[in-house]
Specification:
This protein has 3 helices and no strands. With 76 residues, the protein is mainly alpha-helical. It has one domain (3-66). Helix 1 packs antiparallel against helix 2 (40-47) and helix 1 packs antiparallel against helix 3 (51-71). The longest helix is centred in the N-terminal third of the chain and has 34 residues, at 3-36.
């Protein structure tokens, strides 16, 4: 893989990470709203929905780091 291709892949991964984190933030905001309204059980239930997204974002982050560290030539 060329450095240009690797950089495009990393950029795409960063975009995917942002999307996952934005979705996670929306879920967290909904849970916060429930909690503030006194529905703590519902808030916790909602929060459980973002666990998978957090893991996906972490995996995408690890992939981006791996590509950057192993496939893109260092420029000094």
């Amino acid at each position: 893989m060329t450095d240009i291709a690797a950089n495009h892949v990393v950029a795409a991964l960063v975009t995917e990470i942002r999307g996952k984190l934005e979705e996670t933030l929306s879920i967290a905001k909904a849970a916060e709203s429930c909690a503030r309204d006194g529905s703590v059980d519902r808030a916790v239930q909602i929060l459980m929905d973002f666990e998978g997204l957090v893991h996906e974002a972490r995996d995408l982050f690890k992939a981006a780091l791996t590509i950057k560290r192993n496939l893109v030539a260092e420029t000094t």
